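Predict structure. Chain length: 183.
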Amino acid sequence: LAVADAVNADKFHLIGESIGGTISLYTALNASNRITTVTALSTGHRGNYINQVGSWRNTIEQEGFSAWTKKMMEHRFYPGAVRDAVYHWFSETQANSSPKVTLALGELLMAQDLSQDLNQLETPVLLIHPDSSPFLPVSMSAEIHSLLPNSQLMVIPHAKHAIACSHANEGAEAFLNFIDSHV
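Prediction complete.
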């Protein structure tokens, strides 16, 4: 909200992927008067049901952050899903992240449970979910969809977790169509 305030945006469309999607849902629950729509990609609402994040600390402490990064890249993209330059940029950016912050964010995500509150969210929500996320099965996004009174669900075939990158065109088109029908 501070960023929106800095540019004098009273209402805006909020988009987030993974933990950013969870944060977007939380923000809409707590500031619905500010949010026009939410688009959440590869998003969970119950941290204790998110696969593999609980093992991050052991992987990082026992195998190192570069091993964690390599595993994460396998979880984010199918081979050939993005151009080599994009893959290397993503991998390098991730490898240069702080292991301490990465673990803190993962643990923050694992502690969340928005289940009891989502039925109160009247803000229109577009859920875009990959069919093959190693972290979040499609059933989790379907559960979010069933809890929200005003949502749409789009499942992207042959996609892993990082769909904002691997399927940016499909996501952008879905977002534009969604906001056209809600503005």
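Summary: The mean pLDDT is 95.
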